[in-house]
Design a protein that fits this description.
four-stranded antiparallel β-sheet; globular; Aspartate Aminotransferase, domain 1; pyridoxal phosphate binding; alpha/beta; 4-aminobutyrate:2-oxoglutarate transaminase activity; 15 helices; seven-stranded mixed β-sheet
Amino acid sequence: MSYCSTAYPKEPTAPTVQTTEIPGPESQKQLAQLSEKFDTRPCYFMCDYEKSNGNYIVDADGNTFLDVYAQIASIALGYNNPDLIKAAQSPEMIRALVDRPALGNFPGKDFDSILAKVLKSAPKGQTHVWSAQSGADANEQAFKAAFVYYRAKERGGFSVDHSNEELETVMENQAPGAPELSVLSFKKAFHGRLFASGSVTCSKPVHKLDFPAFNWPHAEYPYYQYPLDKHEEENKKEDDRCLAIVENLIKTWPAKVAALIIEPVQSEGGDNHASPYFLQSLRDLTTKHNVVYIVDEVQTGVGATGKMWCHEYANITPPPDLVTFSKKFQSAGYWFNDKNFIPQKAYSVFNTWCGNPSAMIIGGTIGEVIQKEDLLTQVNRVGDYLMDKLSKLAEKYPKYLQRLRGKATFIAFDLESGKQRDTLLATLKKNGCNVGGCAEKSVRLRPTLTFEEKHADIFIAALEKSLASL
């Protein structure tokens, strides 16, 4: 039996939609009540997580949806997973929740074993981890680590102490203590909604409106023609065009570029994929120009692309300096391999909690289940199956299903307009499937790692029915 069958014997066999509107009347009632104390405008519907199971999410009206969005790509194994429930009931979890250690100062005697389990899921070539609270926090922490590392090299070595001038000027937010440095990112990127992460985000205005931003450069991310095997020459030229822009920005930007951050697939920005050639060429450029190379695997990490970490498709050599993570790992932070990214001064990269041990317990368990159940093999198999079905639909509905692209079950396609895309997503809900969009007109599929062929068949049937009604 498959892991899904054994873990979710009571998983529904099909969606059921009982209300004519979504959100339905009970969801609307509860949302109205919640809105008195919480901003509910982005809410899809009110969820009943007690009744949600496996790949199905249930709302307050009793509607049962096949969830092909999975909490914005952050549910790895499905709802009410028994392995995670067992981990949640462990003595280690009770201590982590009740006593919530300030890990930087007061780690528990069980923390080393918790961390060892987490590190079993590290990307190839990465040996260390620093933990954070969220994906945006992970990126911000990575930026700080990159700046400290970069400045140590500029001063002449990791054992060279700061000058009195640096200690004095930093208290006035002035150079050299607060140096003029920048992080290079890409147009259409999404790395978070905090201050530094907001400055490297460039997907939608609403993500960063009305708060100050750093004057940091945005290069162009490759935009490929599909199918890839029929446009190799054009896409190689696109890679080289974008690489030339990256190198020019590194050479000419007024604030020295200390770090570069990239998503292997720009998720919020429209599921734009970077080729292995592009990712390796960035490694070559960052090495050449002494720039810290950061790969953001917040949405692409933990199996959905068919590898535990998407950038492993590129076999980047030497490995990226820092790899940030969150979402499906249910924990957050960054992986690294060079001990010099541990700052010279204790407390330089620090906060009260230094991550969350309860989240790490869940993350470590997710990694164990993925390996034990060989879920990456399943994700690749189901991804091929789903892509084949979608390719046939694209032939039948070329107007509505354009630029089909993806790795394993991490799949997207475009419609002709944002209005058309939004209509499709609403219709899919009425046909029993919860699906998300990205960028201006893209649909993105983000199922769990336990998504099987039987789920793919249900989704394809709902999609074809929805497309036929457009």
